[in-house]
Amino acid sequence: MNSTLRQQILFDLDDTLVHCNKYFDLILDQFADLLTDWFKPYGIATEEIREKQTEIDVAGVHQIGFASSHFPESLVDTYRYYARLTGRKLLSEEEDRLMKLGLSVYEQPIEPYPGMVETLNLLRNQGHELHLYTGGETGIQQRKIEQMRLADYFEDRIYIRQHKNIEALEDILQSRRFDRSRSWMIGNSLRTDVMPALSAGIKAIYIKIPNEWLYNIMELRHDGDAEMHTVTSLEEVPRVIFNHLHQAERQKRTL
Hints:
Layout: E1 8-11, H1 21-38, H2 46-64, H3 70-86, H4 92-103, H5 116-125, E2 129-135, H6 138-147, H7 151-154, E3 158-161, H8 166-175, E4 183-187, H9 190-199, E5 203-207, E6 228-231, H10 237-254
Parallel strand pairs: 1-2, 1-4, 2-3, 4-5, 5-6
Helix pairs in contact: 1-2, 2-3, 3-4, 8-9
């Protein structure tokens, strides 16, 4: 491939290449059922419990990033909130049960999104340079990477960060000497994938998924020259990149 056509493509992992949110939702359904039962005499609604947990969860991620202990702690903190609110006695065995429930989310099977292998194979075979950039703890994310054999595609171009923001992305872009005019960020999060990419002057493809985690949703503010595309599936990504390159080549020939 002509070097001017070869793109440097950064992929997010969770809910871009592999499923993630749906496992948290399963645990949260069990959690909300437990608390609804425990606080039944006080008339606490399931929806109210889910909203309070989300509030506590999102506030914590803003502070400490993607630490594995945070999610189960958010379940316990929600339980404590309602115990204080209602005067119900806190029980250590109930807190232990919630911690174990929260931690079990990291033991769920790893399931690729439809078209993961085909998409990565196509882009690699077209000569593009693939990178993986994910938020979380190294041990947990590395297990997913190994189970999905993603090193076959990304080799040593894998970056795991507890805080996934503009500073982390800038560090990666500078460490590998990315050509920003040929670089892309692919992901499902407006907050941690798209906004940092546009701020860093690289192109972004936003994969819009249903039932997105509240933390990932934000209002975009960026330079009007920044290039962003929105798709609804991973399988659409190669077409977007191909069309961009085709259009760029056509414009060059008309100059």
